Amino acid sequence: MAFGVEQAKRWMSIANDHIQQQKQYLTELDQAIGDGDHGLNMARGFQEVVEKIASANYEDLGSLFKDISMTLIAKVGGASGPLYGTAFLRMSLALAGKKEADDKELIAALEAALDGIKARGKANVGEKTMVDVWEPVMEFLREKESLQVKEAALLAKEKMEHTKELEAKKGRAAYLGKRSVGHIDPGSASSHLLFAALAEALEG
Amino acid sequence: MAFGVEQAKRWMSIANDHIQQQKQYLTELDQAIGDGDHGLNMARGFQEVVEKIASANYEDLGSLFKDISMTLIAKVGGASGPLYGTAFLRMSLALAGKKEADDKELIAALEAALDGIKARGKANVGEKTMVDVWEPVMEFLREKESLQVKEAALLAKEKMEHTKELEAKKGRAAYLGKRSVGHIDPGSASSHLLFAALAEALEG
Amino acid sequence: MKKLINDPNHVVNDMLEGMAAAYPNRLRRLPGTNVIVRHDAPVKGKVGVVSGGGSGHEPAHAGYVGKGMLDAAVCGEVFTSPTPDQVLEAIKAVDSGKGVLLIIKNYTGDVMNFEMAAELAEAEGINVAKVIVNDDVAVEDSTFTTGRRGIAGTVFVHKIAGALAERGASLEEVEAAAKKVVQNVRSMGMALTPCTVPAAGKPGFELGENEIEVGIGIHGEPGIEKTAIKTADEIAETLLNKILDDMKLEKGDRVAVMINGLGATPLMELYIVNKKVSEMLEEKQIRIHETFVGEYMTSLEMAGCSISLLKLDDSLIELLDAPADTIALKK
Amino acid sequence: MKKLINDPNHVVNDMLEGMAAAYPNRLRRLPGTNVIVRHDAPVKGKVGVVSGGGSGHEPAHAGYVGKGMLDAAVCGEVFTSPTPDQVLEAIKAVDSGKGVLLIIKNYTGDVMNFEMAAELAEAEGINVAKVIVNDDVAVEDSTFTTGRRGIAGTVFVHKIAGALAERGASLEEVEAAAKKVVQNVRSMGMALTPCTVPAAGKPGFELGENEIEVGIGIHGEPGIEKTAIKTADEIAETLLNKILDDMKLEKGDRVAVMINGLGATPLMELYIVNKKVSEMLEEKQIRIHETFVGEYMTSLEMAGCSISLLKLDDSLIELLDAPADTIALKK
Ligand SMILES: Nc1ncnc2c1ncn2[C@@H]1O[C@H](COP(=O)(O)OP(=O)(O)O)[C@@H](O)[C@H]1O
Ligand SMILES: Nc1ncnc2c1ncn2[C@@H]1O[C@H](COP(=O)(O)OP(=O)(O)O)[C@@H](O)[C@H]1O
Ligand SMILES: [Mg+2]
Ligand SMILES: [Mg+2]
Ligand SMILES: [Mg+2]
Ligand SMILES: [Mg+2]
After folding, report:
1. How many CB atoms lie within 10 A of CB B56?
2. How far apart are the first and last CA of chain A?
3. Which of these, A111, C31, C76, C154, could form a disulfide with C82 (CB 3.0-4.6 Å)?
4. What is the ipTM of this complex?
5. E runs forming strands in A28-137
């Protein structure tokens, strides 16, 4: 499966569509156990991303993901801004100079993104954050060694739903303690949207 | 009809009963076109009045009404405090030294009370204040030259209801302009209670 | 009704105790009264400046007691004018022999109670002057009616009369300065929500999710007109235009601006209102000497705001800029 | 949602314009940013002190920009941490060569964004130190979790770090003083009503007519526990006892007290809360050096309050008492 600048742009564009559509839903998830801005943050950031990358021409994936990263860092704010910003920054480093990435290279780049999220947020699996989606999804892809993006998206969905059962230990929901149980983590939901968009961009 | 210290005390006690019962109603009237404290003000003041005069012995009506007046002035506040306070102060002057008042004397004292209200508040008939009850009631009693208190109380009720149709020119309701039409003036309502209590104290 | 209170009938007392406990070096509560005075009252050689009214307008009026503003504030029950005996205690506590100015907001109750107190004080040989503030342009002005209300513009009267009194001016001078402020200050307010007098237990009026009251006072009473909700810009325009119609300012005139929150309005929204107000004044080439944004004269937990404009000249500017050291206004 | 706003998506910009227009002699907005700096920034020979966070906490943080407190405040979207590029602009604008202290409230987002900015600033050769405020005892403290939140006690950090910076102290000294405040300040809050983020359009949670949230933060999120409404005395007791459990004060210890309104609470109610707080402290023979009652760190139009206690020693007292000239805090 070829993953070049065009595919990457399509990924972002589909991701943005999902996020704009689910803006209210993401915000409601965040109102339940956070501060009710996750949908607003993500919608603001990804809208800027698609506008930014639409007009520009990119020689390689690295420079495209650099722009995506910088835009997210500067526009999202909150916790998700630095986290997703760092994720895409790590992807841009992993894909620097590459016009196209094969399965292995893209998986490695996504792996770097996960490492970035964990380095920035210092969260581990089970703490009710986006890591609870990213980590099992990357485990799956790492094992498969091929970009089974549809299965990855389904797994992301399942893991997102699983965050309902967790008690938050990191992020804003941690302040709620046990009251955080029973609600889906908003960042896990937006992470699911990213994996779903990737699947659609590559296979849809 | 004999009107002595006992009758006067009974008047206040019945008036207080009415006011405590109608506290909420008076406050609601004041919420509609004023600031929602008339029932609270009157209830606070008359409660103090009955407590104050219950224990004391009075040689004459003048000293009783002086105490009533001073208590109202110090406890009611708002517009109604100085108005009723001045009314009873004028009564105390009119009845100074008298152990009992006959019809003519009591009517003259009530007339003095009305003069006090008008001097203090500078309101005339038709401006949607307690004067719209007091003035016609006193006209009636003045004409009859006898204490037809039941009829006076009925007239007070009618005149109180009539204030509904007036546009306020004095007092807090004046700020509402035309929006004050359609509501009974709270001070007229409390004035009606005073005349009703007087009738009950003397005839009930 | 959800409030941070104990007994609805004792809110004023509880508040005054909490206030006196918070500022022992600034304020004293006169024992057995609801009067708050400067800790160093009476101040020698200084005209006493006394204001007050119903409670529920905090920080007005006790928040303005201190150097350069009020010597005493008389605190009535919630939205109820204080009684003459209380006002008299305040007058006596602050009079140093130079006389006392009463700053009264134009409400029948306040005017009558303060007047009765003035009469009692005069009878005790104290020189008393009165100034009645009626800055609210929402209400039609007329000598045949109660006339205009006093609202947030009153704080400018406190500031300027207080500053002049602090300099040792005579009662006549302080009174004249206060009257000059009254002649030059105009205000108008609006509400997004009503408020609830604790002892009444329910709101003074009701407003739909898309309604506002325009021309509101500060006692939880309905305004002049109920209208549909508008943008902050439109609301600022409505209020400011009504004020400007009444004031007739000219290019180059200098003003002080107050954007006053009524109790529950986030400061954020007051700044948003000020954005439009400052733009409009700039467009009209009216010079803003100073802007006050915050809660100066509230109406319990009412959401909404009022705008006040004070037209300034050199002497008013000097007094407005003079030092003040009170809880709610420091310079 | 009824608010005095124009477009819900532009409230922060509108607010900052209105604020800059109100205080042209005090503040400047850095062009193209949501950063408010002292009009005279960078101040020569002085460590820069920068704070910030999401908007909606007004007067925090821009209200504390000025002599003796902050050099800059970085204003994020409502309840959303500002981004690193904005924080970087603030750092660059206030650095006079002596370095910059970042005062960060302990939220994952704030910490990460400010840290990223610090890294960028260091890369540009600016010396940056950070202090993370976590005064909220409602949340269990643990190194395995996010830890405690920073709430109203942060204002004491601004005051004391700012006072020391104003005296020309080094970055290390200013940082140490700020950390000392963090170690000695504890807070806890409660809410009577939720609040509504303008762009979200509906309240963050719901509360029945007889319910309150205890252990609330300042971002419209639910608290630790929902309970039945209680009296002001009981609520004060709950909050203060939780704070005292954590602080372990002794007889004769000196404290500063802050009774902070969350946005829609009438000042009257805050004084009523202070009545109980001052009584309890007196009973425990803890000496109150100063009491702050008002809105210092709000949560839009949330009704409720927080209580903060800062344990003082001579050096903290000196810095707390030092002059400050900001919009929201003057000394
Ligand atoms: N330390 C962390 N590590 C990983 N993800 C985190 C961390 N903290 C928060 N998150 C994610 O960020 C999401 C919240 O993002 P958002 O609402 O935009 O920011 P904020 O919490 O600052 O308001 C959470 O749902 C969670 O998935
Ligand atoms: N100038 C006046 N003359 C006569 N009565 C008046 C005058 N102003 C007000 N009142 C009466 O006082 C009543 C209101 O009393 P109250 O609510 O206790 O005081 P306030 O208006 O100060 O809150 C009005 O309903 C009216 O009858
Ligand atoms: Mg959030
Ligand atoms: Mg009334
Ligand atoms: Mg009243
Ligand atoms: Mg946020």
Report:
1. 11
2. 13
3. C76
4. 0.92
5. 100-101
**Other C-beta atoms lying within 10 Å of the C-beta of residue D142:** 11
Is there contact between C and B if contact means ≥3 C-beta pairs under 8 Å? yes
Q: How far is the CA of B186 from the centre of ligand 4 (A)?
A: 8
Amino acid at C87: V
Residue D310 structural domain: 185-320
Task: Evaluate whether residue C17 is within a structural domain.
Answer: yes
Which mutation among B27, B29, B31, B38 tests ligand 2's pocket best, with the greatest number of atoms within 8 A of CB? B38
Structural domains for chain A: 3-203 (1.25.40.340)
Q: Are A180 and A128 in contact (CB under 8 A)?
A: yes
DSSP assignment of B108-175:
HHHHHHHHHHHHHH---TTSSSTHHHHHHHHHHHHHH-S--HHHHHHHHHHHHHHGGGPPP-SSGGGG
pLDDT digits (tens, 9 = 90+) for D98-132: 999 999 999 999 999 999 999 999 989 999 999 99
Q: Are residues D162 and D69 in contact, defined by beta-carbon separation less than 8 angstroms?
A: yes
Q: Which token pair is B199?
A: 């009738």
Among C165, C184, C203, identify where a domain stops.
C184
Residues D109 and D237 in one domain: no
Q: What residue's CA is closest to ligand 2, atom 2?
A: B121
What's the pLDDT band for A204 if we cut at 50, 70, 90?
Answer: low
Quote the tokens at residue D37. 């700096």
- pLDDT tens digit sequence for A18-38: 999 999 999 999 999 998 899
Question: Does residue D77 sit in the same domain as residue D218?
Answer: no
CATH number at residue D262: 3.30.1180.20
Classify residue D166: in a domain, yes or no.
Answer: yes
Contact B36 C112 (CB under 8 A): no
Q: Position of tokens 């965050």?
A: A163
Active-site residue flag, D158: no
Distance from CA of D326 to the nearest CA of C (A): 10
Sheet with strand D72-78: strands edge to edge:
D27-29, D35-38, D72-78, D48-55, D100-105, D128-133
Are the CB atoms for C174 and C49 separated by under 8 Å?
A: yes
